[in-house]
Amino acid sequence: MKLDNSISAVITGGASGLGLATARALASHGVKVALFDLNEEAGEAIASELGGVFCKVNVADEASVDAGFEKARAANGQERILVNCAGIGNAIKTAGRDRKTGGISQFPIAEYRKVIEVNQIGTFICTVKAAAGMMTLDPEDGERGAIISTASVAAEDGQVGQVAYSASKAAIVGMTLPIARDLSAEHIRVNTILPGLFETPLLMSLPENVRQSLGAMVPNPARLGKPEEYASLALEMVRNPYLNGEDIRLDGAIRMAPR
């Protein structure tokens, strides 16, 4: 798919991190971008910078997603690109024991459900809405659209305390091929990126020595990934018409240890 000002894109989680880098990369090619995010202040500022539109959206809420797509399409027209970057995580064991008191704790089910709803169900809601919209378009060069989702290496190498996050990201991997097959007759491609340790706001908030230690865990290159490297792969997934139904690790060959 060509990248120019004749097409538009929706990026969820577009006000920071991987989503922001992808929005900037797409906008640099003239693509009209719409940012879905809950951070209104940052989202409006970035949309203004990129000449795009900000839509305050909770991806886990269908009505909020519908309103976001309505606003985005009113401003930019029907999108041909969706990049799902919105997500959350937590660090809670399935069950745990306090070493001092011997007391036993349980994973709060509401916290588990929240991660699943945002990461897995939110990705699916946005994918469903974008796919239905793309189906109204005429194919260009044999394509109606491209959808990219964000999983994580935790989908395959989940660490201690990552059960909810890993499950939500594994579900995104599991959805990729069936959705690609569902949409194949409509000429809409679907792929997923599994990032490793990246310079996201969460990791960048850690002390410098901790970030260096994490980067040193990566075999090659021995550093944290840059959001622009995620964006580069996302753009290649849009450009390459034969790339479909794939889940690609972007991780410097890291395989996460249990903790």
UniProtKB/TrEMBL annotation:
It holds the Pfam family adh_short. PROSITE patterns: ADH_SHORT. Its EC number is 1.-.-.-. InterPro entries: NAD(P)-bd_dom_sf, Sc_DH/Rdtase_CS, SDR_fam. It comes from the Bacteria. GO terms for molecular function: oxidoreductase activity. Keywords: Oxidoreductase, Plasmid. Belongs to the short-chain dehydrogenases/reductases (SDR) family. This is Oxidoreductase. It comes from Sulfitobacter pontiacus.
